[in-house]
């Protein structure tokens, strides 16, 4: 699932590349910024994910024989195809650390490469980063409300085809504990978890018999699904019988699972029945169309649920479905570039840049990132990107530079971390963010500003462009 | 991208399989129904897609050495792993033809296999069919409003990671003409299409120079993106200059593309400028957050747009993100099975079944599918699945059986069709559906009923289950 051809791209990248090639511009340098414009889920932050996958994919990106044959059949020219035969990405990438919290309109990642290489990787870069960042952010929001509960990814069956594979990875970065997805568990070294399906219970004439067989077959991590016929009259009583039988063999039922009906009510009634039978150690797992809002509500109602299985809404990043990340040219052949747009909010930022996070003495974020030129070591005063009279003095803050070189000459420079390490890092970073940015309704808006030099550079380019249109 | 391990499944499938194996039930037969409960996009129909991919994947599904090692590390037992080493799907599959229009709560596909094989393929079956059906339906809705306009899939960058690959396939089935996605175009034999990016224009000092180079590089299918600086003052005039230069070399500019601002206004103004310059053959392409509603509105405003590039909303199936398809046990070891639920609407249908589409003498759908037992050759009277007093006499209609055997002993029985053929078939089937089912607002509800025998069989099982709970 991690094997990508360089044809995993949009056709226009190759069309443009051929023109650059023919026009003698193949060695022109380019700098592109990756950023998004709008936070997903109307939230106050996003969790950046997908970087390690992307770097691995990029470092291995090649056109094979069949790719070149296909491109030839599409009218691409031999000389250009010979160039593609030798294609590999030899550029540099600067990036925020995977798992860090990120905000709109400021560079999360910068690509510095020749223009052809930089274009060819655009599509896969957007494809992998947009989606994993979306799902990691969703997972993080669910983790925020779920406290210490165990969170399981159950989404593969409703995922957008093989996108589910990457969704699982991102879910772990955002704070999930385990997944039902076997291939993702295997390849990404994620704890795997599962219970039983209704079909198992149905395949027996008798629920109790089904539970007994399942418990015998998997005594070490047995979770019984109790809602196939009638949760409180049949499922839970039968689970209690089996739990007692396990006790007589010095084994323990791990949990029961509720998958329908009013989860708060059924969890409370099931808990009562279990406790009355002396089974206070048996946990309650719940699933069925969960998301951060349902889980928050269940816990506010003090539903005694220990384990949440989350599927569709997690792995599809519902209700957003996509992060609007873009990849914009900031420099070409050494010259700073902007795109003027009908909307001022879409005007891009020229030049190679650095992003600084403002922190107070205790290490807490004060709620501002400043964008400067790459050679600036700090930003003394930051300006609102679109409202010229708004500015903020930053001299009293500690400034953390966020973009680090992660790839050079196409080689990965950073050590591989486990998903648990990335997830722990993400939690730490999130803990530095004040709670006002984490609430679901109207979260406080994190400030993004630009340095005076960057502002002036952009202004010069805007004026030059206006001049031309006269 | 078409290579799947049998570990592309949920862990509980293997957990249950091991229990079946240990309990001597590995050769027990099972029949599962695939269906969904709710139409996507609040629409009146769905387009079934993903079948050929699924059959190919299933016929090749195996556990390799590394899979078995991983499962061993997860505590699966040696005897069972030996069984998995020889695993291949040897069952039968009955299905509606790919591209047909389908409706909620009735079987679209039935799997008949031993219980272990039937469980192991569940996850990938749901994963591939749910998503492709979602996107093919979205594409079909867009095609319905777009008339003869050219429809291009531009979605890969915002797709849910590699899900975008399958989204492209489904988009073509639903009625799209071409894609920007090179690898999908190559592997699925889809026309590939692309234009140019803003970065290309920005990388030049001068827009006109950029247009000239691009047109020289790709004279045969040149589309110029005109909104980088100023659409009407700069982009379109420069495109006109280049079109005239192409004419002097007996070449033709194919189109201009608009990607921002008010598309209706800019299309009309651009058309005027192009026509005034004698370039009435130059087409206008538009992109930027399009979906069926935006395209419908643009065409109602008579925006002269010939080509629509649709991205995010198509490939993520926005706003739904997932089809709620399920896989439910209908027979186990020869015995009919149901799942009783807290909600009557979720009670499943027992037995191996057939689905009949009712048609009038002209071949038009009358808006009803009836579900009978598999051996019933027609359904004389169909009953509402949940409201016992509602029924409908079907004797006067032509009845078309929809489920056909497409796999036997794990071998594919149907001939591979091109996506164009599947798409044409889909269009034909859709043309048999009256317009009331196709409108976007409150579409007419297609009737689904069950035969008297099926109703009685289900009732017997419900009563037996109730009896047990007493």
Automatic annotation (TrEMBL), chains A, B:
Enzyme Commission number(s) of this protein = 6.3.4.21
| Nicotinate/nicotinamide phosphoribosyltransferase domain span | 151-350
Domain (Nicotinate phosphoribosyltransferase N-terminal): give its ranges: 9-130
Q: Name one GO molecular function term.
A: glycosyltransferase activity
List the pathway annotation. Cofactor biosynthesis; NAD(+) biosynthesis; nicotinate D-ribonucleotide from nicotinate: step 1/1
Q: What class of enzyme is it?
A: ligase
Which residues does UniProt call coiled coil?
Answer: none
Reaction equation(s) it catalyzes = 5-phospho-alpha-D-ribose 1-diphosphate + nicotinate + ATP + H2O = nicotinate beta-D-ribonucleotide + ADP + phosphate + diphosphate
The Nicotinate phosphoribosyltransferase C-terminal domain covers: 352-456
Please name the Pfam families in this protein's record.
Answer: NAPRTase (PF04095), NAPRTase_C (PF17956), NAPRTase_N (PF17767)
Top-rank taxon of the source lineage equals Bacteria
**What is the annotated signal peptide range for this record?**
none
* Post-translation changes: Transiently phosphorylated on a His residue during the reaction cycle. Phosphorylation strongly increases the affinity for substrates and increases the rate of nicotinate D-ribonucleotide production. Dephosphorylation regenerates the low-affinity form of the enzyme, leading to product release.
Stored NCBIfam families: NAPRTase_put (TIGR01513), PRK09243.1-2 (NF006695), PRK12484.1 (NF009131)
Query: Which family does the entry's similarity section mention?
Result: Belongs to the NAPRTase family.
Q: What is this protein called?
A: Nicotinate phosphoribosyltransferase
Protein source organism: Christiangramia sediminicola
Q: What is the lineage of its organism?
A: Bacteria, Pseudomonadati, Bacteroidota, Flavobacteriia, Flavobacteriales
């Amino acid at each position: 699932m991690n094997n990508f051809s360089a044809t995993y791209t949009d056709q226009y990248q190759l069309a443009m590349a051929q023109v650059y090639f023919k026009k003698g511009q193949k060695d022109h340098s380019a700098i592109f910024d990756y950023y998004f414009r709008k936070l997903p889920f109307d939230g106050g932050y996003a969790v950046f994910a997908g970087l390690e996958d992307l770097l691995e994919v990029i470092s291995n990106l090649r056109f094979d024989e069949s790719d070149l044959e296909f491109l030839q059949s599409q009218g691409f020219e031999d000389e250009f195809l010979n160039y593609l035969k030798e294609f590999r990405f030899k550029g540099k990438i600067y990036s925020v650390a995977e798992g860090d919290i990120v905000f709109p309109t400021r560079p999360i990642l910068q690509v510095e490469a020749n223009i052809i290489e930089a274009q060819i990787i655009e599509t896969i870069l957007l494809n992998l980063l947009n989606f994993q960042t979306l799902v990691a952010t969703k997972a993080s929001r669910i983790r925020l409300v779920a406290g210490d509960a165990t969170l399981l990814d159950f989404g593969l069956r409703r995922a957008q085809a093989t996108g589910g594979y990457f969704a699982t990875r991102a879910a772990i970065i955002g704070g999930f504990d385990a997944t039902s997805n076997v291939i993702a568990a295997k390849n990404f070294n994620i704890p795997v978890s599962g219970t039983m399906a209704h079909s198992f219970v149905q395949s027996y004439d008798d629920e109790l018999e089904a539970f007994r067989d399942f418990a015998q077959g998997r005594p070490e991590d047995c979770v019984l699904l109790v809602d196939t016929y009638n949760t409180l009259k049949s499922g839970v009583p039968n689970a209690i019988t089996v739990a007692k039988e396990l006790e007589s063999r010095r084994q323990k039922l791990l949990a029961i699972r509720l998958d329908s009906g009013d989860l708060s009510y059924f969890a409370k009634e099931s808990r009562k029945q279990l406790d009355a039978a002396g089974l206070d150690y048996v946990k309650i797992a719940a699933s069925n169309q969960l998301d951060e809002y349902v889980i928050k509500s269940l816990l506010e109602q003090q539903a005694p649920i220990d384990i949440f299985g989350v599927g569709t809404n997690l792995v599809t990043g519902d209700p957003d479905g996509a992060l609007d990340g873009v990849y914009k040219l900031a420099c070409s052949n050494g010259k700073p570039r902007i795109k003027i747009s009908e909307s001022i909010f879409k005007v891009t930022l020229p030049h190679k840049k650095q992003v600084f996070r403002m922190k107070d003495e205790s290490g807490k974020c004060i709620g501002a990132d400043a964008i400067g030129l790459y050679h600036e070591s700090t930003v003394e005063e930051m300006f609102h990107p679109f409202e010229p009279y708004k500015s903020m003095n930053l001299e009293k803050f500690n400034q953390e530079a966020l973009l680090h070189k992660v790839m050079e000459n196409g080689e990965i420079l950073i050590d591989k971390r486990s998903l648990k390490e990335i997830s722990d890092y993400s939690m730490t970073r999130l803990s530095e963010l004040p709670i006002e940015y984490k609430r679901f309704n109207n979260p406080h808006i994190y400030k993004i500003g630009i340095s005076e030099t960057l502002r002036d550079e952009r202004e010069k380019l805007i004026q030059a462009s206006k001049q031309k249109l006269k």
